[in-house]
Amino acid sequence: MGEASVSPGVRVRELSGLGDLVYEAAHVDAHAEVFSVPVEEGWERRTAGAFATDVTAIAKGLVAAGVSEGDRVVVVSGTHHDWARLAFAVWSVRAVLVPLSSSVSVERVTHVVRETRPAAAVVEDERLLRAVTALQRELPDLGRVWRFEEGLPEVARLGAYMDASAVRFRRDATMPEDAAVVLYPVSTVSRRMRGVVLSHGALLSAAAGVVDRMWPRLSELEPGRASALLDLPLSEISGLASLLACVVGRVRVGLSAPGSLPRLVKSFRPTVLVCGPGLLEQAYEVERGRAHSTGWDSLGTFNAAAEAAVQFDRAPKKGAWRRLSRSMYDWSFAKVREMFGNRVHLAVCWGGGLSQRLDEFYGGVGVPVMQVFGVPETAGVFTANAVGDRSAGSVGRALADREVWVSREGEIHVRGGGLFSGYWADGEASGTAFREGWLATGVVAEVDEAGFVRLSGRLRPQAATVEVPGRFVAVSGAVESSGGAEPLEGVVPGALAAPVVEGSEGESDSVVAEASGGDAELVAEFEARLRAHPLISQVLVIVEGRPFASALVTLVRDQLEYWRLVNGRPLSMAPEEIAGDRDLLREVQGLVYEANRSVPRHLAVRSFHVLAEEFTVQSGLVAPSGELRRDAVLRAFAEEIDGLYRVRREQR
Questions:
Q1: According to the 3-state scheme, what is the secondary structure of 361-396?
Q2: Average pLDDT over the chain, rounded to an integer
Q3: Would the pLDDT of 218 be above 80?
Q4: What pTM does this model have?
C-alpha cells in the first residue's frame, strides 16, 4: 500500500485559500516532486519547495506592480507550467484570476477586459497583446500589461527587493468566500458568456470531493508514484479543476497543450490519466483502425477481444473462466495500455459523455475509468464515480456535500457546497440561476434509483435563464442552434456520439481529408457567390481535415448599419448584437442554401459563424493583395470553428 488511508481532501477543506496548497505542500515535504516540465531531453521534475519559491517571487512582483486584494489579473495563455506558477501567485496575494485561452478572438478578449477592468494582464499571443495594450488608454485601472514569454521574469524582478512577508500577510487574510476566479466558459452558442465567479472555498471543496472519490485507488500507489499528464485547457473549468485536484491529491502534474498528449504520453508514462472522453474514443478508434487495415480477420479478432473486455468488466465476480477468457486477448489489451504509457492505474474522464460500452471496454482492458462531471457554476464538479461505487456510462453520484434533483423537464438541479458566488457584474442573472435554493444547471439528465446520474444534453449554455444571443448556425433543414441545445461543458466534440465497440462500419458523413484541385475551384466559386450579396464582406470555407464543410462569414459594416435601420432595430444595438440577430442569421442562412446548390454534397456548407468585424490587413488576416491568409484566420478563430462542429454533433 502507499500513503495513509485518509484522503488529503479532509485536510484541504480546512484551508482558507488556494495559495495555501502550495505552501502546505512545501511545509510537509519540500523535496516532494509536484510538477514535471517538458525539456529537450524529456521531463524535468520540480519539487514543492522550488515551486513555492517561484510562486513567492512572482507574487511579490504582483504586489510591487500595484495589484491589490480583490484586483483582477487577466491571463491569456495556453497550457504550460508558467500558467500554474502565475495562477498560484495571483491567489497568494488575494487577487482574482481571469483566465482565457490564447486562441480566443480579439473581440472576446476585449469584452472580458472591459467587463472585469483588471489591474494587470499577462498575454501570450502578440495579436491579443496589442489589443489589450490598446485598452490601457480606455481603462485607467489597467496598470500593467506583460507579454507572457518575457513577463514572468520581469514581474519577479519588480518584487526582488520585497520581503516575503508581504505575500504571507495577503495569504493569511484570504477567506474561503473570497473570489478566486472569474471564468468565461467557451460556448458554441455565444461568445458573450457571463463570467462565473468562483471562490477559494468552492474550488477547494470541488477538488477535495474528487480526491475523496479517487483516493481508494490513488492510495494503492507508492508515495511519489502518482503522476498525471493533463490534456485539458487550464483556461476552462475542466482543466482548472483537474489541476487543483491533482495538487490536492499529491499527484505530480505534467501539463501539455490540448491535443499533444498522445505525443508526450509515452515519455511521461502517467499512472493517472486525466482527460476528456475524446481521447479515450480516439485511442479506441486508432486500435480498431489498425485491426481493420490489417484485414477482416484482424478486425473480427479485435471485436471479439473488445467483447471479452466488456463482459469481464460487467461481471460482478471475476471467476477463473472469465479471467482465462480475458487473458486470451491480453496481447490486444496491452497495445491499448501501451498507447497511454503502460502504467495507467486510474483514468479520470472529465466532462462525461463516454458511452457505457467504451467505459466497460477500458475497465476490462485494465484502465479503470472514473467519469466526473460538473458545470462552471459548480466549480467543475458535482458528481463522480468512485472505485467500488461505479456505474459504467454514468458520471457517478453526487459528491458527499452536494444534493441533486431532477425537475419535471429533466433539468438537473444542485445544492450544497462548491457552488459559484454569482455572475460577474450581473446580479439579475445570478438570481435566475437558482430555484428556491437549487442551482438550475441547464443540463438534462436522469438519476436512477441508486443515485447515478446519466447525461442527455443541455437546455441552456449557462445556468441562468436570461437568454444569451448566439451567431452559430447549423445549416440542416431549417434548424438554428442559437438558443437551442448546447453541448455539455467539458465534453469534447463528438463525445455524446461515442463509437460503439461492436457493429458494422455503417454510412457516415463524407470526410474530406484534402481538397482536390477541382474542389478548390468549386469552393472558390461558392465563396464568390456569397460575397456577391451586398451584406457579405468575406467568406472562408473550411473543408480540409473536417467531417463536413463549414464557413466563417464577415459582414460589411456600412451594410450592417443599413440592415439595422431597415429592420427597425434600436440605435443602441452594437454590431455584435446585429450579427447575432435571428432575422439576419436567417437571411445569411438562405444565401448559404442557395450557394449549396452549386456544389456537390461533400462541399455543401452545413454550419457557419457570422462575425461582425471584417478581416483586415492590420490584423494580419489579409494579405496586401486583398487575399485572406487562410492559415492565420484558421488559427485566430480556432475556437469558433471547433464550436461549429460541436453544434453539429450535438444535433445528430
A1: HHHHHCCCEEEEECCHHHCCCCEECECCECCCCCCC
A2: 83
A3: yes
A4: 0.73
